[in-house]
Amino acid sequence: MTPHWKPIIDSIPSDQVATGDFDPDQHLQYEPPARVHTMKDLNLPENTGISAVAVSEPFRLFTTEAVHRMRAEVLSQDVWNNCQYSSNLAQCQLRGFAARYAPFVYDTWKSPVTLSIISKLAGLDLVTEMDFEIAHINISVRSEEEKKQQVAAFAEKQAFDEDEGIAGCPYEPEEKPIVDWHTDAYPFVCVTMLSDCTSMIGGETALRTGNGEIVKVRGPQMGCAVILQGRYIEHQALRALGTTERITMVTSFRPRSPNLPDDTVLTTVRPISNLSELYSQYSEYRLEILEERVRTQLRVLRENKRGGKKVNVKALKEFIRAQTDFLAHMEHEMVDEELVTMGNIDDSHLHHFSQDDVVAKRKRAA
Questions:
Q1: Residue 202's closest CA among 172, 247, 245, 226?
Q2: What is the number of helices (H) and of strands (E) in the chain?
Q3: Residue 362 and residue 354: Cα distance in Å, rounded?
Q4: Which pLDDT does position 348 carry in this prediction?
Q5: CA distance linking residue 339 with residue 326, whole number of Å
Q6: Residue 165 has what pLDDT?
Q7: How far apart are CA 278 and CA 269, in angstroms?
Q8: Which residues contact 250 (CB under 8 A, 6 or more apart)?
């Protein structure tokens, strides 16, 4: 069931927030990350996914004014009343709001300048997945008293560890993470921090490597972001101490080229979505991909005919099989509404990909 409650979150009064359209010269403050980690760095097969890029270190993306504009839209009454979801993976999420209630957020992620930055970091020309995924908001809140108690408990544990000679170990929260272990529904995500994390302890993103080890990527500060090829890497958002709120904006991306594989699955988003909107937008962009592929194949057939060349039956049948698989995948992902349990996400998204399947998909789509 969709929850209808709103936690107490500090926000700038609306009359103190600037207005006007998104302007990349005014609202973007991009500073490249110190490092971008590859799939190979995580001991994952290099042919996993659609890019060699796995995850970036945090990088500055937005000005403080842009963050305040985003927060004002995200925390608006309309968004909280109409776009709030909860699941067994995360307690409080906002989804599918930007096109209707958050024009600044929508224009930010549709901007060619923003897309160029994200694409360059990902090593691949990307577009936003679909309007419903601009953008997904994860929210964790606690009272000031709870914050003080947790920080005091952490300090006590640190003192104990020093006495026992085990100080210096990274903070491991005992609470359930903000978002539990999962792979994303979509190829790439950009995770942007909308909260002040100056005093935050923890809050990293944990990644499971190809050999089963866990590595952590430092969480971004307010206005900063990380990119992650999250469809192919199991990860979780760890809980943090030292703050009363943690609000992250997750924007999803897919390849612009219709000739690249689209491994999008809806497992983790079906139970936290307006299914009519989700299925409509998912079908529209997938059928547009199919349309472009068919048009390309038609051009090849017509050019070969004009040139007096024989039909390459083997290649044509391979193309037909690839598109049959493409449509079958769509049909599989669009589960009948009465069979979807809202808020309940199973663990099928964690199953590891067969590398043979990945390679075969890439060859068929090329």
A1: 172
A2: 10, 17
A3: 13
A4: 65
A5: 22
A6: 39
A7: 9
A8: 135, 136, 137, 138, 189, 190, 191, 192
Q: Amino acid identity, residue 182?
A: H
The token pair at 63 is: 């000005």
Q: What SS3 state is found at 56?
A: strand
The predicted pLDDT at position 251 comes to 97
Distances (CA, A) of 119 to 104, 113, 124, 342: 21, 10, 5, 33
User: Strands 84-85 and 36-38: what pairing?
Assistant: unpaired
Q: Burial code of 345-363, b = ≥16 C-beta within 10 A, e = fewer?
A: beeebeeebeeeebeebee
Amino acid, res. 228: L
| pLDDT value of position 46 | 74
Per-residue pLDDT at 239 = 72
Contact 189, 227 (CB under 8 A): yes
Q: Map residue 207 onto helix, strand or coil.
A: strand
Is 292 in a helix, a strand, or coil? Answer: helix
Give the 3-state secondary structure of residue 253.
strand
pLDDT of residue 176: 54
Kindly state the tokens that stand for 123: 């090593």
Q: How many CB atoms lie within 10 A of CB 126?
A: 25
Token pair in block for residue 327: 């449509």
Q: Tell me what pLDDT residue 61 has.
A: 98
Residues of the chain with pLDDT under 50: 1-3, 5, 7-8, 143, 146-175, 178, 352-366
Helix axes 313-333, 275-306, angle to 10 degrees: 170
- Total Cβ atoms within 10 A of residue 20: 9
Buried b / exposed e along 41-63 (16+ C-beta atoms within 10 A): ebebeeebbbbbbbbbbbbbbbe
- Please state, in angstroms and rounded to a whole number, the distance separating the CA atoms of residues 134 and 168: 39
Question: End-to-end alpha-carbon separation of the chain, Å?
Answer: 42
What does the alpha-carbon distance between residue 72 and residue 352 come to, in Å, rounded to a whole number?
Answer: 39
Q: With 0-12 CB in 10 A as exposed, 13-18 as middle and 19+ as buried, what is 9?
A: middle
**How many Cβ atoms from other residues are within 10 Å of residue 204's Cβ?**
17
Residue 149, CA atoms < 13 Å, CB-side half-sphere: 5
For the chain, how are helix, strand and coil distributed in percent, rounded to 5? Answer: 40, 20, 40
